[in-house]
Amino acid sequence: MSDPKAADAQKAYEPVAFAKKHRISVEDAKVILEKHGSDRKNADKEGRRVSL
User: Fold this and answer.
1) What is the mean pLDDT of the chain?
2) How far apart are CA 29 and CA 4, in angstroms?
3) Which of 17, 31, 33, 50 is the most exposed, having the fewest neighbouring CB atoms within 10 Å of its CB?
């Protein structure tokens, strides 16, 4: 059986959902997601940095 959380980690974020999660602008979210692609761990790190 596959782990559902592992499968979610492989999916790319939608910019609006990412922006809401980190309370940043959609434009900033798009830039971060273009840079990190489907690497959720590093995208989340950058999202936290931008939200400060």
Assistant:
1) 86
2) 24
3) 17
CA angle 35, 12, 23 (to 5 degrees): 75
Predicted confidence (pLDDT) per residue in 20-40, tens digit: 999 999 999 999 999 998 899
Q: Is the pLDDT score of 4 beyond 60?
A: no
Can you read off the two tokens belonging to residue 9? 């980690």
Please report whether residue 41 resides in a domain.
yes
Domain that holds residue 13: 8-51
Answer yes or no: is 20 within a domain.
yes
Question: Do the beta carbons of residue 43 and residue 33 sit within 8 Å?
Answer: yes
SS3 (DSSP) at 47: helix
**In this structure, is residue 2 part of a structural domain?**
no
Tokens representing residue 4 in the block: 């559902």
